[in-house]
Amino acid sequence: MTKFLEETNIIDYSNQDIQKLAMSLSTDCKADVEIAKNCFEYVRDNINHTGDYKDNTTTCKASDVLKYKTGWCYAKSHLLAALLRANYIPTGFCYQRLSCGEYKEDIFCLHGLNAIYLKDYGWYKVDSRGNKEGVNAQFNPPIEKLAFELGENEFNLPKIYEKPLEIIVQTLEKFKTYDEMINNFPDIELAKTDNKNEETNNLP
Q1: Mean confidence (pLDDT) of the chain
Q2: Cross-strand partners of 6
Q3: Residues 82-112 pLDDT 10s
Q4: Whole-angstrom Cα distance, residue 72 to residue 160?
Q5: Contact assessment for residue 66 and residue 55, using Cβ atoms and an 8 Å cutoff
């Protein structure tokens, strides 16, 4: 479980602003579930989803997501992980392969979200991308209420990752504008489950 508490260059929770916010979100909380809910709702409601707002700033590092108050789903999951890990709550990264039809027709892409380890519930998935018409992600363990219902040819990648996928980080660091991102969304065209290791193959 210690791997899900690690600080990295992307999940940089020693950043002063992240530490300050993480502390404020945990004030007066008596259980991890209360802290987790506060952190989730902060990122969901106070950080723009870059695609929804058509922001031309593409963030990746958790501290930059907080600084610029915007991020694609992947980047928002980085900030949420940083806030939770700063509060000693194990947090991982999960991905879905979804249709990206709202941006471009006939394409699929990865969608990023988190899994939080709660003492009373175990691993619990949340999606902090930000709500809008037709999207109503909530925090109500043990019931998972994610942003999207899976449709045809859409699926969950089976693993909970301790670090963001490298293809995610590479994409966010390379493509900086809204138009660049919608033309270069990260994708895994075929995910296979290894019964022994639950590894995902065929990364781009």
Answers
A1: 92
A2: none
A3: 999 999 999 999 999 999 988 888 889 999 9
A4: 19
A5: no
pLDDT at 192 over 90: no
The label of the residue with tokens 């709702």 reads 41
Q: What is the pLDDT of residue 105?
A: 83
With H, G, I as helix, E, B as strand and everything else as coil, classify residue 95: strand
Q: What CA–CA distance (Å, rounded) separates 200 from 197?
A: 9
Give alpha helix (H) positions in the chain.
16-26, 32-46, 50-53, 62-68, 73-86, 166-174, 178-182
| Cβ-Cβ contacts under 8 Å for 127 (sequence gap 6 or more) | 73, 113, 114, 137, 146, 147, 148
Q: Which helix (H) or strand (E) holds 132?
A: none
Which pairs with CB-CB distance under 8 Å and at least 24 residues apart come from 43-48?
43/76, 43/79, 43/80, 43/83, 43/128, 44/76, 44/128, 44/129, 44/130, 44/131, 44/137, 45/130, 45/131, 47/71, 47/76, 47/79, 47/128, 47/130, 48/130
pLDDT of 174 over the 80 cut: yes
Largest CA distance in the chain: 48
**What pLDDT sits at residue 189?**
59
The tokens 């007066």 sit on which residue? 28
Please give the single-letter amino acid code of residue 73: C
With vertex at residue 139, the alpha carbon angle to CA 124 and CA 37, rounded to the nearest 5 degrees, is 95
Task: Give dist(CA 180, CA 171) in Å, integer.
Answer: 10
SS3 18: helix
